[in-house]
Amino acid sequence: MYLDVGLLFLFIFAFLITIGAFFSALLGYEKLKTKKLLSKLEYMQRIFNDVENQSRLLAETNLKFQKIQKELDKKLKALNTLYKITQTVSRTFETEKILDSIDLDDVEELGFEKLLFFIFDDERKKIAIKKTLGYKDREPQIPRNILDSLATLKSPIYIGSKVHIPEGLQPLAQELELTSMIIVPLTIREKNVGVMIVGNTKTYKKPSESDIEILSLLANQLVQSMENAKLYEQLWKSYQELEERVKERTRELEEANKALQKVNQMKTEFVSAVAHELRTPLTSIKGYATILSSGRLGEVKKEQKERLERINKHSHELVNLVNDLLDIARIEAGKTTMKTEETDLNEVLKDVEEVILPQAEEKKLRFVINNKAGIEKIYADRVHLERVLVNLLGNALKFTPENGEIGVVIQKEGDSILFEVYDTGIGIPEKDLDKIFDEFYRADNPINRERKGTGLGLPLVKKIIDAHGGKIWAKSKPGEGSRFFFTLPLRKGVGDG
Fold first, then answer.
1. Diameter of the chain measured on Cα atoms
2. CA distance linking residue 216 with residue 155, whole number of Å
3. What is the DSSP string of 122-139?
4. Could you tell me how far CA 5 lies from the centroid of its own chain?
5. What CATH number is attached to the domain comprising 241?
6. Hey, what long-range contacts does 311-314 have (CB within 8 A, 24 or more apart)?
7. Is the four-CA dihedral 265, 268, 272, 275 of positive or negative sign?
8. How far apart are CA 205 and CA 375, in angstroms?
9. What is the extent of the structural domain holding 193?
10. Are 483 and 428 in contact (CB under 8 A)?
């Protein structure tokens, strides 16, 4: 009996121990589970906090981005406005159109309600208001006591609100009805020539450097365009005055030219008349002197013969002078027509050689004719061409000392024949080269001072060449000889007119 009770007691005790162990294990498991759960909750809390921080940062970034975007949009509008105005002013040189290129909408695009644009006079004591926007009923006046400070302004001034207006600028702000404003100096070549003021009747947030820069660009674009317009207007006025002077001078020259032509015609007619009147008695004098000198009318003493020969010589020179004068007068009057026809150049050169060679040999000069191009036929007035060559070679003979050389070179040059008459004589000073073809002009040299001449030979040569449609010119230096060039058309019709 007692054994059964003990066993039962042991059984119950073991059962209780087993139950305790079970509950103990169960409690340990729950504790562990709770600990893991708490750990997970803490992890989730950290994630939540991170997400919350990221969201807050994202929201702040978005606000900053919106602010930046707003600033960029504002700057873009300002730049577009500046570009539009620049495009307009660059296409005109009229001051009014330049100032009309900016309107109130443009000012509002830049973030302002009002604009004032004025220029100083030369002494910076007065101003000329060129543009106002936002003032419908009146034109604002700038107080005189602040002109000096505005005239010496070097950089833009920003005033953000009424409380920030300097005491010296308060009368200006009051007159312009502005609570906030930006004052921009207008500069040309580092000189302040005016001021542009933009502003609002309400507080204006502090502008960025780019805002100030855009306003400065706008202000100086306008004033520079106005300066260009002013310069253009002055240039145009000067051009018109110059054009009027040129027209007036042209009229004067035309009148003078007509008068000169009339005088020249009168001179030609006078010379022609006098030459005609002189030629007859000169011919008679020359003839009588020759007859007397020959002794046909009686014996002539030696002294008388010398005087008669001198009379004959001078009469001959005067006849040549008269003939030259008549030829020039006829050519100028158009009474002498060049009989241009196919001419044998070799025959012309042969005739010239017969005249010049004996004189060259007498003076111990070498005379050369070089037809380089082998030209045989030309279109020219044979008589006048020979006269030109004889005249030029005669001058070469005259101014070339013994043992020198004179000559003619002929070559083809395009549609023309180029003649060159050269010598190894004393040469011609450069100052005389432009004048030697003028009538009665004679270069100053020892030979001309010793031997008198008419100064008509080269002018006559030039008129003959001109009448052929050619050109003549000379090259020379003192002591290096002279070279006279002239051209004649190679074929009939070439160079006419």
1. 225
2. 9
3. TTSS-EEEEEEES-SS--
4. 138
5. 1.10.287
6. 311/285, 311/286, 312/286
7. positive
8. 94
9. 95-207
10. no
For residue 406, the surrounding DSSP H or E stretch is strand 405-413
- Cα distance between residue 459 and residue 465, in whole Å: 10
Instruction: Judge whether residue 475 has pLDDT over 70.
Output: yes
**Mean pLDDT within 460-478:** 89
Number of domain units in the chain: 3
Q: pLDDT digit string (tens) for 32-69?
A: 666 776 776 677 777 767 767 777 777 777 777 777 77
- pLDDT digits 0-9 by tens, 63-109: 777 777 766 666 777 677 767 777 766 766 776 777 777 778 877 87
**CB 230, CB 95: distance < 8 Å:** yes
Which residues does residue 475 pair with via DSSP β-bridges, in sequence order? 483
Structure tokens at 53: 């921080």
Is 356 in the same domain as 301?
no
Has residue 371 got a pLDDT over 50?
yes
- Phi and psi for 234 in degrees, rounded to 5? -65, -40
Q: Give the mean pLDDT of 442-451.
A: 52
Q: Which amino acid is at 78?
A: A
Supply the pLDDT for residue 370: 92
Please indicate whether residue 469 or residue 225 has the higher confidence score (pLDDT).
Answer: 469
Q: Cβ neighbours of residue 52 under 8 Å, at least 6 residues apart?
A: none
Q: What is the mean pLDDT of the chain?
A: 77
pTM: 0.43
Same domain, 261 and 320: yes
The token duo for 321 is 């002078």
CA angle 294, 295, 297 (to 5 degrees): 120
